[in-house]
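Review form for a predicted model. The reviewer records the input and the model, then writes brief findings.
Reviewer: anonymous (R2)
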Amino acid sequence: MGNGIIDIHSHILPGVDDGAVSWEECRQMLEMAYAQGIRTIIATPHYCVHQDMDAIRMKAEQAAQEAARIAADFQVYLGQEVLYFESMTEHLKEGKIFTMAGSRYVLAEFMTDAAYKVIYQAVRKLLMAGYHPIIAHVERYIALRKEEYLQELVKIGCHLQMNYCSLEGNVWDARVRWCRKQVQSGLIYAMGTDAHHVSYRTPVIAKSLRWLNHHIEAEYVANMTEKHAQKILFANL
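Model under review:
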């Protein structure tokens, strides 16, 4: 794995979920990502009960080959974004869900209106089962707008992922201000594109990177964009 930004949340695999619709779009998304300085992607298709895991693995391998054609230092790994459900830990233990790059890290999402108690208990259950939960696009959950809740989750061992695009916008936008404040507070473990397409929800992160580089200490930017994600990729070594 070469140096560069690591995107831990991306829907580049075609025909798996609501992400890329074709191999052509997948290739275009990969090219866009590479142009932004992204050198490693963990593809995270949405979990589905009846998913064909072998087919998803094959698509991830093909996406990795497509990335290698773009550049020798461009890599793709496989993960999964999972809408939390009660038997998630059992499905993980049975190998029915893809963890992040084959590690013990898992990318979990919740309904936007999920109660904090539900999120907290889910995180605790994953931790007790020996997994490292990463909450996807943490800015989406109404209950987590209370900063003390974010702090509590981080304290017990949960990791928080924020989408790059959430940092874009006008300073008068309350949502943007909130997202930037959480980054400045040091609570965000990793940034991700959550890219789905080439025309919208793209892997373009230039504006967000400019804000980060102008307002956040360089070491913390490196942690959120690369170094923390390296822990996921190297977890099994």
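Findings: The chain has one domain: 5-233.
Further findings: Strands lie at 5-10, 38-43, 75-78, 81-83, 105-109, 132-135, 159-163, 190-192.
Recommendation: see findings above.
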